[in-house]
Amino acid sequence: MGSRLPPSRNLGYVAAGGAVGAVARVALATWFPALPGGLPWVTLVENLVGAFLLALVLTLLTERLALDPAVRLLVCTGMLGAFTTYSTLAVELDRLLSAGALAVAGTYGALTLVGGLSAALAGLRLGQVLSAPHRHATNRPPRGTRRRRGLGRRPEGGGR
Amino acid sequence: MIWFAIAVAGALGASTRYLVDHLVSTRLSGVFPWGTFTINVSGSFLAGIVTGLLLAGRVSAATATVVAGGFLGAYTTFSTAMYETARLLEDGATRAAFGNLLLPLAASVAAAALGWGLALVMAS
User: Between A and B, how many CB-CB pairs are < 8 A?
Assistant: First the structure.
């Protein structure tokens, strides 16, 4: 692995997914604004849903589907990466702390970390379960992937 | 119009994350995902600056939404951080997993507070 820049086509996939993920996240935050001093439910739900979906899709891509790396860049790095956020979480915690809402901040932080890790582990497990029957058929492409582009290429290949 | 700006900012934020992660993770090896750590802490610092400038009345709410919500929200990522933590746990690297759970959050909250304070000093 060198430190050369990734191909610009990869950036295109990440950018397209990032636009969709960011708009979806900000739209939800706009439609369901958090109450001042209250628990930021929208960010919490977005982050947990995103963590579950990313772990599920990445596990499926890695273990089962021989999809084009473009799907990984578009859906995982781009869309789900941008749909979830860490900076908003940090600022929301600071806002709660500066308002003296220590209990809410502690609850929010704990729910985020415990819920986020649980969601990712659940996505990982579900991905493994869904791909389990195909693990031994390594010399044949899994059913349903015959028509897909990029068959036989490795799912990684620039980007996560 | 603001939604178009948010979409562009989101596209730029995700692309920047992809590039920064590429640059960091090709230089630092080991089990700890330094790329995501660098991204989330630096993004939180910048989001703290935007928040401070917003509260000081130096930037509009629309600008803050596009920059902090669109760009920095898409630049930083929670899903990747949790996936990497879950993978560390799966691989039996329990200490690294819990370190990767707590350290980035503590560092990001501190970085955002630092940015916020810096913006208030700059704006005063």
Answer: 211
